[in-house]
Structure to design on (657 residues):
């Protein structure tokens, strides 16, 4: 296992170099002058432009620019954005919010999704099953901004249970509704994945063995069948967590959440190359680590998967 | 529960557990068992009135081809049929005189595994892939006997040693996929005999194994049966497996018993054309170069079992009466029964 982890960590290096180069190249290939519009209505002074270009190595050829960027990156320096704030400090603040939101959304999808999936699976073809199938289809079909707006209106404005938007403090209470909205799509997938796998495993020979052993139906289903059904579900949830850590641009905008997604979106809009490249690099690294964790977890859940 | 009212062969011990005692060595009495499956296409009559019994220390082989109802019989005894679609409209399965079919669910559950245990055909899919084998064996002791984790695991090691799994102590934490086919079946056997059941049902225990391993597994089953005086029901389509192990043979066709006899009589002189066809279809060394005899046709569709004798469309001896009147299973010689209008002629042939 230790060997496997080391190998995977080493594999990450070329992936990180490749992705950062691509994103670096794309951002700097964007048309337009990064200093245009920086000085309000007037064009910037020649001295300012010169200083800016020197600071960002804009007169070097692209590979040299990239090399200088990576050299700083290796020291943990993600650069300074156009407002003179360190990207690293910005990201730290925003990742606290995004991480909190992602964890809450995951908790919602795991609890609600798995419970709904189990209920549907053990009552296959009955009312509960159809209810879950239809309601998840409904949720999957509606775009997230519609669900978000509906939630804002009904849960936020009409009943006043939760605040409509999130302040810069991003408290647990404020994030509850956004987490429900963000998790709703995945609830549907988790519920369906749980149901399908449970239905399949209930027919498995080893569940018949469990019954023949004199175990209670609850134990045969709740332990023997469910344990096997959870393998693909937990894998899905793990990858979903990685994706959610990349920020949820739409949900963040609807609820005015100061998260990573909005940061990248604004960076692209404002042609703030340093911010975009820095944020995406951080995102890639985090995603790779989450991926590794999911793969390790997969091996723990399913002993047939060997990491040797 | 009326188990304590009469002088029944069951007694309750202090902890509420029932102790079953066979009367005159009789373990199982299957009486006029019917099983049908309600499907979208209609009602498939899988078992149509099967009766047999099993005594202590006895080996009964139930022989038949796919779809004859032999596995369904075993599953009905175990109580592991999926109901629905399966339904048992008639019949009784008495264990130590007590009908399992009318027993309350929680009482019947304690019979499963502890009193009547079962071994399945495909040990790989029948063992749970995500739990260690020792844990799965130990689960019997934890659930039925309330034993703690370390004691139950010690029992699991003891059982794995008993079924000759090498280095049992080291392998108790291994998973099913880490064992060979034969070793997996040994683990299934260890799990089945864990609580010293009075009846062991083996449903095609060696079908998925290669020939040398088949012989080892059958030898192990026979040894365990003699050691523990279990009643063994061996379900198979393999006449070769039956000959060495079984005392009595019951041949099934289209959900009915067509012949019962002790193993020597049946091999020497079958009393039913179907049995004779089965015996003739065994390859023999002294018939090298000749065409192997086979029973023509296919077993009947259980949704539409032919009237009269179910075997008549495939039977070389079939007469008009076979197409109209169903032959009852009747005694045709001392200790043997056949369900054929012409059983005596078959026997004398």
């Amino acid at each position: 296992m230790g060997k496997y982890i080391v190998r995977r960590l080493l594999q990450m290096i070329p992936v990180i170099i490749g992705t950062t180069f691509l994103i670096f190249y794309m951002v700097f290939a964007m048309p337009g002058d990064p200093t245009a519009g920086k000085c309000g209505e007037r064009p910037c002074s020649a001295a300012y432009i010169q200083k800016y270009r020197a600071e960002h190595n804009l007169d070097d050829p692209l590979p040299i620019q990239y090399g200088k960027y990576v050299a700083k990156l290796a020291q943990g320096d993600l650069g300074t954005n156009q407002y003179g704030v360190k990207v690293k400090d910005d990201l730290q603040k925003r990742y606290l919010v995004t991480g909190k939101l992602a964890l809450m959304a995951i908790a919602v999808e795991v609890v609600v999704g798995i419970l709904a999936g189990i209920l549907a699976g053990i009552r296959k073809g009955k009312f509960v099953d159809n209810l879950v199938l239809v309601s998840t289809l409904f949720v999957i079909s509606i775009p997230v901004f519609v669900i978000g707006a509906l939630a804002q209106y009904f849960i936020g404005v009409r009943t006043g249970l939760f605040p409509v938007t999130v302040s810069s403090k991003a408290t647990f209470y404020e994030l509850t509704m956004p987490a429900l909205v963000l998790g709703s799509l995945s609830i549907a997938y988790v519920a369906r994945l749980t149901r399908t796998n449970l239905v399949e495993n209930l027919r498995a020979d080893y569940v018949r063995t469990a019954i023949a052993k004199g175990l209670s139906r609850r134990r045969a289903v709740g332990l023997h069948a469910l344990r096997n059904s959870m393998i693909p579900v937990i894998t899905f949830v793990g990858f979903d967590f990685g994706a959610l850590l990349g920020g949820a641009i739409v949900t963040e905008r609807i609820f005015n959440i100061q998260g990573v997604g909005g940061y990248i979106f604004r960076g692209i809009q404002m042609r703030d190359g340093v911010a975009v490249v820095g944020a995406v690099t951080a995102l890639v690294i985090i995603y790779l680590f989450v991926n590794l964790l999911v793969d390790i977890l997969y091996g723990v859940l399913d002993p047939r998967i060997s990491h040797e | 529960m009326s188990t304590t009212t009469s002088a029944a062969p069951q007694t309750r011990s202090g902890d509420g557990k029932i102790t079953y005692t066979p009367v005159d060595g009789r373990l199982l009495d299957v009486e006029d068992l019917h099983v049908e499956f309600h499907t979208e296409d209609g009602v498939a009559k899988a078992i149509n009135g099967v009766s047999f019994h099993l005594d202590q220390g006895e080996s009964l082989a139930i022989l038949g081809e796919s779809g004859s109802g032999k596995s369904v019989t075993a599953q009905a005894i175990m109580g592991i049929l999926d109901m629905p679609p399966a339904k048992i409209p008639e019949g009784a399965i008495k264990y130590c005189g007590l009908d399992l079919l009318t027993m309350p669910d929680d009482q019947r559950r304690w019979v499963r595994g502890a009193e009547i245990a079962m071994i399945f055909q495909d040990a790989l899919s029948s063992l749970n892939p995500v739990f260690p084998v020792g844990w799965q064996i130990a689960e019997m002791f934890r659930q039925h006997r309330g034993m703690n984790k370390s004691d139950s695991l010690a029992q699991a090691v003891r059982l794995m040693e008993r079924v000759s799994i090498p280095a049992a102590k080291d392998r108790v934490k291994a998973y099913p996929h880490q064992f060979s086919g034969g070793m997996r079946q040994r683990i299934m056997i260890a799990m089945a005999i864990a609580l010293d059941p009075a009846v062991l049902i083996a449903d095609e225990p060696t079908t998925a194994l290669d020939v040398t391993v088949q012989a080892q597994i059958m030898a192990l089953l026979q040894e365990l049966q003699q050691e523990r005086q279990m009643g063994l029901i061996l379900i198979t389509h393999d006449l070769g497996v039956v000959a060495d192990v079984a005392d009595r043979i019951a041949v099934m066709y289209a959900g009915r018993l067509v012949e019962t006899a002790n193993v020597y009589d049946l091999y020497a002189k079958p009393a039913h054309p179907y049995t004779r066809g089965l015996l003739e279809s065994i390859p023999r060394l002294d018939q090298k170069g000749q065409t192997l005899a086979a029973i023509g046709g296919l077993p009947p569709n259980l949704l539409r079992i032919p009237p009269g004798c179910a075997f008549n469309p495939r039977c070389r001896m079939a007469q008009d009466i076979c197409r109209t009147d169903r032959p009852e299973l009747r005694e045709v010689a001392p200790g043997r029964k056949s369900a054929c209008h012409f059983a005596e002629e078959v026997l004398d042939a």
Summary: The first helix of chain A runs from residue 2 to 29. Chain A has two domains: 2-74, 89-269.
